[in-house]
Amino acid sequence: MHDRHTETAPSSETVPSVEAQAEEQILLLRGRIDQMDAELAELLERRALIAAQVQRLKPVGYFAGRDLGRERELVERMAEHAPRLGADRLAEIMDSVISAGLAAAQEEAASAS
């Protein structure tokens, strides 16, 4: 027969605390975010390179040649894939992405001439 009074509970050293488990989960999730951020940076670089090619081919390029209708359509399509962000937030994000790509392309064109 077991004496209930002599049984010992697991020590706090052997059972991770809720805080430690949460911290471990946070570290794992942040690692996933870091990986996605690296992938996103690579996609943004590729996008900027292709956008620069488009700008060189357009009769009026860079900031003067922005196609706001096309940008709206792009955001609407993206919102279908990212409903949590929604069209308004995606519009802000894509405006920054497009502006940064155009600025980089314009700087490259200026330094090449």
From TrEMBL:
<feature type="region of interest" description="Disordered">
    <location>
        <begin position="1"/>
        <end position="20"/>
    </location>
</feature>
<dbReference type="InterPro" id="IPR002701">
    <property type="entry name" value="CM_II_prokaryot"/>
</dbReference>
<protein>
    <submittedName>
        <fullName>Chorismate mutase</fullName>
    </submittedName>
</protein>
<dbReference type="Pfam" id="PF01817">
    <property type="entry name" value="CM_2"/>
</dbReference>
<dbReference type="InterPro" id="IPR036979">
    <property type="entry name" value="CM_dom_sf"/>
</dbReference>
<dbReference type="GO" id="GO:0004106">
    <property type="term" value="F:chorismate mutase activity"/>
</dbReference>
<dbReference type="GO" id="GO:0046417">
    <property type="term" value="P:chorismate metabolic process"/>
</dbReference>
<feature type="domain" description="Chorismate mutase">
    <location>
        <begin position="20"/>
        <end position="109"/>
    </location>
</feature>
<dbReference type="InterPro" id="IPR036263">
    <property type="entry name" value="Chorismate_II_sf"/>
</dbReference>
